[in-house]
Amino acid sequence: MTYFWxxxxxxxxxxxxxxxxxxxxxxxxxxxxxxILFGVSVMFIWEASVVHFxxxxxxxxxxxxxxxxxxxxIPILWxxxxxxxxxxxxxxxxxxxxxxxxxxxIADRFKFFxxxxxxxxxxxxxxxxxxIAPILVMWYGYGWQSKAAVVAVMVFFPILINTVQxxxxxxxxxxxxxxxxxxxxxxxxLKLRLATAMPFIFNGLKxxxxxxxxxxxxxxxxxxxxxxMGFRISTEAPRFALDMVWAEITVAAIAGSLFYGGVxxxxxxxxxxxxxxxxxA
Amino acid sequence: MNKKLWIGSxxxxxxxxxxxxxxxxxxxxxxxxxxxxWEFDKAKRSSITLSTTELVSQTWSQKRPKLPAPHQITKExxxxxxxxxxxxxxxxxxxxLITFYExxxxxxxxxGLGILLSIGIVYNKATAMSVMPWIITSQxxxxxxxxxxxxVALGSAGFxxxxxxxxxxxxxxxxxxxxxxxxxxxxxxxxxxDLMKTWxxxxxxxxxxxxxxxxxxxxxxxxxxxxxxSVVGAIVxxxxxxxxxxxxxxxxxxxxxxxxxHIWSGLFSAAILAGSLISIIIIIERVVxxxxxxxx
Lengths: 281, 296
Prior knowledge:
- By secondary structure, chain A is mostly helical.
- Chain A has helices at residues 2-23, 28-52, 63-72, 74-109, 111-125, 133-140, 144-167, 172-180, 185-221, 229-236, 242-270, 275-280.
- In chain B, helix 7 packs across helix 8 (162-185).
């Protein structure tokens, strides 16, 4: 009982601190506090409510139980991570992005092809492509190959759309300048148009990091060898081992954030010249 | 029909038709290649040799093909929509309606919540500072992965049926709306906000007469994203729910029993469902933006 009220008091205090911080002048370190305080108080209230209201661990395990499960089953989690995130998602991500990049270069070269492909790609990008998972699992078997195939198809269209749009973004005046330099198609493409397209391409790459993990995990619901994050979630959930499921979600969250962060770092390195990057520094 | 649509450098219809024809031809080709081994196997067992025409016609009419030909899928969809009673569990309309309801409820709740939260974020700096980073982080997390857990946990808590799936669908459509609407509600320039101030407009007036109208284009963009996301949420949510029905359930059972035609027809109906729901939003968007003179 006291535990619960303590969490409530903590939450109100944290909220008041946040209001106070919001009134201060913005500094980088001060801006870090509100989200951290918010996250910590959510954890506290979660833990306290589970204990206070005697919620069955079948419905919602407390964060502490998830933490212990996470610590005690690191080898299993690591195996799942390798199977799903590295073998399935990452390899599919590279294949899909590479294929989309090549197709968008072809589309840029042949305008007729581009005009035919773009509307179809735009349409397909909004479709529930994840539904292709059972078909690809049937074709490529239960191993990581089928997951990589699902991921490749899922990331293909966002990258294609963003790259084609980005390549078009160079200014007429810049292209004219390249022409006065007597640059050929390849030189213009490499030195001007792809460089201008980079922020757009990275936009697509960032969207696709999450998509690739989702694709790999959901594809495992349709059949998988005895490891993998999707496999673990779909077998542990019906057994009501929700602490394991939440540990797996923690892994997914960490993997997703790391993957996203990696692409953002690469973006900062490559598009350092772009206003949105310069402004942040 | 607009003449410019057909002829001219920005004509789209001819290339798109060419592409679709090309895809269909490739598809028929692949369905021969992928289904042929099974036919050869069968012919070998009954020791007959297949002529090319026999081979082609048989690969296009297998009962459980590796890759069904487009006409087989069309026929399967026709059979399971028009020739079956809507209440029958074999009817695609029955499954489609279940997915439709899950999608619509999830979308409605998700959008409503998203808009409310975005107003909170724009008007309360403490909320913005503490919640917004989490919303952005949550975009990098494969949220869909928790779908089966929500279904199981809510099921054991006594909520069964559509409700857990609606919650997943709501959760997925919620984020695009929050992110888009925060951008949209913040889109009025300082000059415009200042003008409202000189008229001594109240906070509610600034919201409804300046920020909300200004955010409409952003709202429609996020609605389209949210609708696509909530269809995906509904389909994935159906996977672990067992006998509930729906297009996702249909695809899963097709995959379990190796009935490829069920998978493909489910996939196409899901695409048709998502496509028509998004088209409705696009039509509303055109009408509304035109009336508001915001059309670009």
